[in-house]
Amino acid sequence: MMKTKTLAILLFCALPVFSQNTRKQERLARRAADFLVMKEQAAGRNFEFVADQALPSGGSSVDLFSNPNHVTFRGDSVFCDLPFFGRAYQVDFRFQGGFHLAGIPNEYTVTEKGKSIRIHFRMKDEFDNYSFNLTLTGPESATLTVSSNHRSTISYWGTIRKNESENAKP
Predict the structure, then answer these.
(1) Which residues of the chain have pLDDT under 70?
(2) Are 113 and 100 in contact (CB under 8 A)?
(3) 40 φ, ψ (degrees, to nearest 5)
(4) Residue range 39-162 in CATH 2.40.128.410
């Protein structure tokens, strides 16, 4: 009887240790799988970034819940429609008040840094040159920073998702 109680106590004490190791292994396996998904999305260029908040330099964050926006990656092309909040240093009379770009980026690089993936690309239109830095930090979360020659730098926090249809218009 004493041996059974001792064995039961030992099993009861050891069970949380085994359970913690299993949870930790599951968490590590999930993170590794999430990283592979992010890597595939960056390499395949078939995903979309949708901003939830904007953080203009020198200003407070702006909630973008009711403001439609996106940066869509489809093959070699990028389609960008983001609002801009901040300071414009030089404005053309045809200025639309945001980042509205579509086309093939001048430069597109993907680098891995720790547990995140950084996508850097450059685009330009007839008025300005833009530098985009998109950092994928989770399977669905990302941060985008946009720099421009004629506007202050702005960052966006949001989510990424796989494009539903490759032929759909952005």
Answers:
(1) 1-21, 91-96, 164-170
(2) no
(3) -65, -40
(4) yes
CB–CB of 69/81 below 8 Å? yes
**Residue (of 37, 39, 55) closest to 119 by Cα position:** 39
**Checking DSSP bridges between strand 62-63 and strand 154-162, what pairing results, if any?**
unpaired
Token pair, residue 97, equals 């008040």
133, 144 contact by CB (below 8 A): yes
* Whole-number Å distance between alpha carbons of 67 and 165: 22
Which tokens sit at 110? Answer: 């993907």
Residues 129-167 have pLDDT tens digits of 999 999 998 877 899 999 998 889 999 999 988 876 554
Evaluate whether 81 touches 108 at the Cβ level (below 8 Å). no
Q: Please report the beta strands in the chain, taking only residues with DSSP state E, as ranges in sequence order.
A: 46-56, 62-63, 70-74, 77-83, 98-103, 107-113, 116-124, 129-136, 141-148, 154-162
